[in-house]
């Protein structure tokens, strides 16, 4: 808020990207280069390079570094609300990790296309939005 940035818009664009990128990757593997996953890695590498170059232009001189970072983190972790938050995040990660690992193995055994596998990631975006 001090810098006039709307963090909600940044999060919304992140969720939109999470919803659109997986089906697009599956579509590329299924229809542009059938069965060849190389294109997805090339596109991801290109986008990572572009994002890295954009990050180099960020101005990070607006905030002084913390002097007692470890002490502050330990002090914050002693609060019951933070402990509960960490437990919820742990369980959320375990459950989504389990689903995202074994669901795809099951779908592949059933003969699902790569586009469908990407769409299953897009279906998780509203759940991620609610839980974060």
UniProtKB/TrEMBL annotation:
Keywords: Membrane, Transmembrane, Transmembrane helix
InterPro entries: MFS_assoc_dom, MFS_MFSD6, MFS_trans_sf
GO cellular component, one term: membrane
Recorded topology in the membrane: Multi-pass membrane protein
Domain (Major facilitator superfamily associated) ranges: 2-125
A Pfam family reported for this protein in Swiss-Prot or TrEMBL: MFS_1_like
TM helices/strands, residue ranges: 12-33, 39-60, 81-107
Family: Belongs to the major facilitator superfamily. MFSD6 family.
Protein name, UniProt field: Major facilitator superfamily associated domain-containing protein
Annotated organism of origin: Meganyctiphanes norvegica (Northern krill)
